[in-house]
Design brief:
This protein is of the alpha/beta class. It has 22 helices and 25 strands. The longest helix has 17 residues. The structure holds beta-D-glucopyranose.
Length: 724
């Protein structure tokens, strides 16, 4: 039941005030002197003073003083004294920046992921911010898409669990508590499935695919009581999400019982005119409200057209009222009617931003997120014998390692790779070369200067060589789709030439997406996928390089051999002519004749300095209920303590519709000391065996299932069971 004071407020509001309440504008509308970096195209909407004075929320990250100033001035003018809501993108940290979400996904560490969101919320809420546009739960399979960096990866289960952890981290139990933010899961729905990996492109998926792969993570957020959900730019079944009643009313509200606020993406309601499902702003406003869209971000269809649409009887006023109610309820849930400034406190920001505790958590998560992909026994390094390290490449000295959407994080606060290593080896034992930094591709930049000769000369006396290469952080994120995923030519050349020194070459790749690393693989003795690891990058990688931390990160997304294989993902459907087990000469099979079907490195893959052995897979079915218990013995067969990520996959062998060849259904991060072995078990429930049929029913079908447990999506012990 809605609170009486909110119902009274709605009764007292004019239609114009209600329409404005549904509108979100950037801070410069409220305070001309405030400028923020906008995350989309800016247009002048010619709004009246009254429209602005009644707008319900603000988009953009500023500081405590400015938020308070805007709130103060607003409350003085707003005749109902309804506070403004402040929202912004705090994606992987506010000031202390954690790894990009794609990297965090690979940590498989839900607790630490939750803690990172909690820290981000703390650091952001002291500025006076109320809502973060995070987590992004979009399932991603196409590394050409720049926004893969913002997602926890290609698997629906991992996505769902990570999304839950983030919502819990931001919101806690009570949004009124200090240090909490309301979370906004995005981009509903299936924004990651755009054709060809091209930004904002068409999505066309069957409902089966949507329900199987793409929707579970948003639903998980709803189950965690996420406060808001943001619509996506793309179409679903030829209808843009922002004006899609099936998605917003049927699926989200009726089926999932979502009671929070829906918000468009930046200008995406207006863009349904470009999509050509609305002729003008009036029709766009009508479609938005009919679909169940509450807040319109950075366009003005609602504020300019809704009052007239109600007056002419084209839409029901109760739809507008419902949307206003949900927004006012969110303001109430955050406690803004009692305290419109919430946690705003500039001195608090100075106290907690980048504090030791936050940096420590960032370092730990960065250490767990980097993925060791190759190691010819050259790692870990030993400091003994006055080890001298040479580091070459654009990320050797660079602090451009925060990754996109880095809140108010600043490069200057980041630890570079060279500085991280210097802290351990001393300045004299670290030599750097060819350190020119990358610039954004959009500036026309193509490559760093070829200084390979100089680099080889400078590093010739070093014992070990690191090549710190990758892509500019601005080349991933929104509006950064790419077709060429190899390293730039001079970076590849650098690695190749460094190899000639006959010293161990360790490559670290910094990127917001899987890149095509096959061409450099032969030239390196070890390779760490370093993503963008955030503020503590240099320290975290140093911990890994010297074995202070044993690598445990896994790939949250497959790394393709070549761009031509994309999309390549582990949970594909079996075809009628599967290629597995056939001779390489077999022509009439589902295959490429010039490349393997499987990726270079599969989902879930990652090495450790320990050697883990899996044995004794044992699956016991339970005759009393539909389910089973699966257990496996995992042994750390090495002299090094370490963490292993034990993964459970299930395949439904025969069903009414084609099922994926395997699906991740559980995982556990287990610490095993040298020589230790442990039995790890998983409960397999009926829920885990169900799937959506073509009538959109979530059903169990009796029959055979294959239970698989192992180290990654390809190296698995397998056992078949029958469940009736
Ligand atoms: C992005 C969203 C973001 C919004 C607000 C849009 O361009 O797609 O992810 O939350 O801007 O900054």
């Amino acid at each position: 039941m809605a609170k009486q004071f909110i119902l009274d407020l709605i009764k007292a509001m004019t239609l114009e005030e209600k329409a404005a309440q549904l509108t979100q504008l950037s801070p410069n509308y409220f305070d001309e002197k405030t400028s923020v970096t906008l995350t989309g195209p800016y247009r002048n909407f010619d709004l009246t003073k009254e429209m602005i004075e009644n707008a319900g929320s603000v988009l953009g990250c500023v500081d405590a003083q400015t938020y308070c100033k805007i709130q103060d001035a607003y409350l003085k003018k707003n005749r109902h004294h309804i506070p403004l809501l402040f929202m912004a993108d705090i994606i992987h940290g506010m000031k202390t920046i954690f790894p990009i979400p794609l990297a965090i996904g690979g940590s498989f560490d839900l607790k630490l992921c939750e803690e990172s969101a909690q820290i981000a919320a703390k650091e952001a809420s002291v500025t006076g911010l109320h809502v973060t546009f995070s987590p992004m739960a979009d399932l991603v399979r196409d590394p050409r898409w720049g926004r893969v960096m913002e997602s926890p990866g290609e698997d629906p289960y991992l996505n769902s669990e990570m999304t839950r952890a983030m919502v819990r981290g931001y919101q806690g139990k009570d949004l009124k508590e200090s240090g909490r933010l309301a979370a906004c899961v995005k981009h509903f729905a299936a924004y990651g499935a755009g054709d060809g990996g091209r930004e904002y492109n068409t999505v066309d998926l069957s409902r089966g695919m949507l329900k199987e792969y793409y929707l579970p993570a948003y639903r998980a957020a709803v189950e965690e009581d996420v406060a808001l959900i943001m619509t996506s730019f793309n179409t679903i079944e030829r209808v843009p999400s922002t004006g899609n009643p099936w998605l917003l009313r049927e699926v989200l509200r009726k089926e999932w019982g979502f009671r929070g606020v829906t918000i468009s993406d930046f200008n995406s309601l207006d863009e349904i005119i470009n999509h050509s499902i609305a002729a003008d702003s009036k029709e766009a406003a009508k479609k938005g409200i009919v679909s169940g869209l509450d807040i319109e971000m950075m366009s003005a269809c609602y504020v300019t057209c809704l009052p007239e649409l109600v007056r002419t009887g084209e839409i029901k006023e109760e739809w507008v009222d419902e949307a206003v109610l949900r927004i006012l309820e969110l303001k109430d849930r955050l406690g803004l009617f009692e305290n419109p400034y919430k946690d705003a406190d500039q001195s608090g920001a100075e106290r907690i931003w980048l504090c030791e505790k936050h940096r420590k958590a960032a370092r730990k998560l960065a250490g767990e997120s980097a993925v060791l992909l190759k190691n010819n026994s050259v790692l870990p390094l030993s400091k003994a014998n006055n080890l001298k390290i040479g580091i070459a490449g654009p990320f050797a000295e660079s602090k451009q390692v925060l990754g996109g959407w880095a809140g108010q994080g600043e490069n200057k606060d980041a630890i570079s790779l060279a500085d991280g290593i210097r802290a351990v080896l001393g300045n004299e034992n670290v030599v750097t070369a060819m350190t020119q930094e990358l610039q954004e591709r959009l500036t026309g930049f193509l490559d760093v200067k070829d200084e390979t000769k100089e680099a080889v000369k400078a590093l010739k006396d070093c014992d070990v060589i690191l090549a710190a290469v990758g892509e500019h952080p601005g080349d991933s994120g929104e509006a950064a789709s790419k077709t060429y995923l190899r390293l730039s030519k001079n970076q590849e050349k650098l690695i190749h030439e460094l190899k000639e020194l006959s010293k161990p070459v360790i490559v670290i790749v910094f990127a917001g997406r899987p890149m095509e690393i096959e061409p450099i693989l032969e030239d390196c003795d070890a390779l760490i996928y370093g993503w963008f690891l955030g503020t503590e990058m240099g320290n975290a990688l140093t911990d890994l390089l010297f074995g202070k931390v044993n690598p445990s990160g896994r790939l949250s997304i497959s790394i393709p051999h070549t761009v031509g294989q994309i999309p390549v993902y582990y949970n594909y459907f079996q075809t009628g002519r599967p290629y597995q087990g056939m001779s390489p000469q077999e022509r009439f099979a589902s295959r490429y004749i010039d490349c393997e079907n499987s990726p270079l490195y599969p989902f879930g893959y990652g090495l450790s300095y320990s050697n883990f052995i899996y044995s004794n897979l044992n699956v016991c079915t339970d005759s009393k209920k539909r389910g089973a218990t699966a257990s496996v013995l995992v042994k750390n067969d090495s002299d090094t303590d370490g963490t292993v990520v034990v993964q459970l996959y299930i395949r439904d062998i025969t069903a009414s519709v084609v099922r994926p060849v395997k699906e991740l259904k559980g995982f556990q991060r287990i610490w095993l000391t040298a020589g230790e072995q442990k039995e790890i078990s998983f409960e397999i429930t009926e829920e885990m065996l169900k799937y959506y049929n073509n009538k959109e029913e979530f059903i169990f079908e009796a029959g055979e299932f294959e239970i698989m447990i192992g180290d990654n999506s390809e190296q698995l012990l397998k056992e078949k069971i029958t469940i009736l």
